[in-house]
Amino acid sequence: MSKLVSVVVIGGSHAGLAVSHKLLRQTTRARITLINPSDEYYFNIAAPRFLVKPDSLPQSKYLYSIPGAFRDYPADRFTFVKGLVTKIDYATKSVSVGLAANSAATATPAPTHNNATSFSFDYLVIASGSTTPATLGRSGIQLPFKSTAFEDTKKVIREAQVKLSAARRILIGGAGPLGVELAGELAEVAGPKKVTLVSRSRELLEGATAPVQRAASSLLRQRNVEVLTEAAVVDAVYEAHTQTWKVKLSTGSTYTVDAYIATTGTIPNNAFIPKSFLNAQGWVNVDSQLRVLEDGVSRSDTYALGDITCHPYRLLSRVPLQAETVVANIVGEIEQGGKVRTYDAHAQKKMMVVPVGQSTGTGHVGGWTLFGCLVWFFKGRDFLTYKAPKFLRGEER
Ligand SMILES: Cc1cc2nc3c(=O)[nH]c(=O)nc-3n(C[C@H](O)[C@H](O)[C@H](O)COP(=O)(O)OP(=O)(O)OC[C@H]3O[C@@H](n4cnc5c(N)ncnc54)[C@H](O)[C@@H]3O)c2cc1C
């Protein structure tokens, strides 16, 4: 039998899981090594709901075992490594990995120093995604909008839930879908909470259609959320002695609140990626086949997909088609057949579905505005957690 081709996938979230499963299903000639700092798949999409309303969703709906999702494949075809890639070395075609204490790695990697190790590849897939200032605790209170490397996700979630439940005065900086969803959830929880949502632009939900922007604003105001437009947070300082945040706005006013939540900013997880792959903002340049561009030239051995690429609209809804593209092209090369697949970000329909509380919301699919009951049906009732098992198994299309 011919030797298995080694594919290393960096990042075990929505994009990395989709590529790994699809490769395992579509070719018997590849051995996959999936590397992620946590062995849990975190369905972060539902964070606005379960961070604010801990009893609304059990943890089993948004945290899943990654190794468990691969147990049906032959052992020689899949390895999960709990670790963080720190370097890609094209001279040896290998990645260096800082391992967590209890890594589940079962391969026989070449050992190196400092609790690090390396894994060689024929093909590399970069799916390391992005994080946010709030996730890192760099701006406002720390809230796990994305998973955090090597931290106990359950513990971080619990601490965030306690902080949000105790806060009486809350200011949210940023009125994109996440800011609006959080404001809607917070407005519904018990206790006398005063919620303020600050939008830099004249309307909420920049990029949405005008009726959707108006609906978001009106639904929040009906729920006594204070909506400030054409205002930006210019400074936010935590005062330990009063345990409050002083938040200065561009309008000149200052708010004193128990919790300041920053919902803006997307940070690429690119510390290990060669600079020659990155655009000026730090995202990975890719060609239409999703092959990585190094100084403008396509690499034949490296692909990227999901949030980490230079493509606009960093959305989960974009991941399945990107994963199909990457897998079709790798399988085509391994099996030496099949048509080259291309991906066009602009050809995918634009949509936004934004629950405002448990039972209503707003949104659009292309130019069609969604009624509140449809937003409830598609997302608001359980924040898409019914889809999480499909994303976990790479079955979502
Ligand atoms: C709160 C919130 C709600 C959202 N809601 C929606 C929504 O309703 N609909 C929608 O379409 N999109 C939504 N999004 C966007 C969606 O979360 C992203 O598009 C999606 O997570 C992208 O998936 P990904 O796998 O590319 O990256 P990520 O989910 O960012 O995952 C990257 C993975 O790579 C790992 N990683 C990073 N660095 C390394 C390394 N060096 N070595 C190994 N592993 C590494 C990370 O730990 C992580 O597990 C939301 C985003 C947020 C923050």
UniProtKB/TrEMBL annotation:
One of its GO terms (cellular component) is cytoplasm. Residues 6-317 form the FAD/NAD(P)-binding domain. Gene3D superfamilies: 3.50.50.100. One of its GO terms (molecular function) is flavin adenine dinucleotide binding. Coiled coil: none annotated. Belongs to the FAD-dependent oxidoreductase family. This is FAD/NAD(P)-binding domain-containing protein.
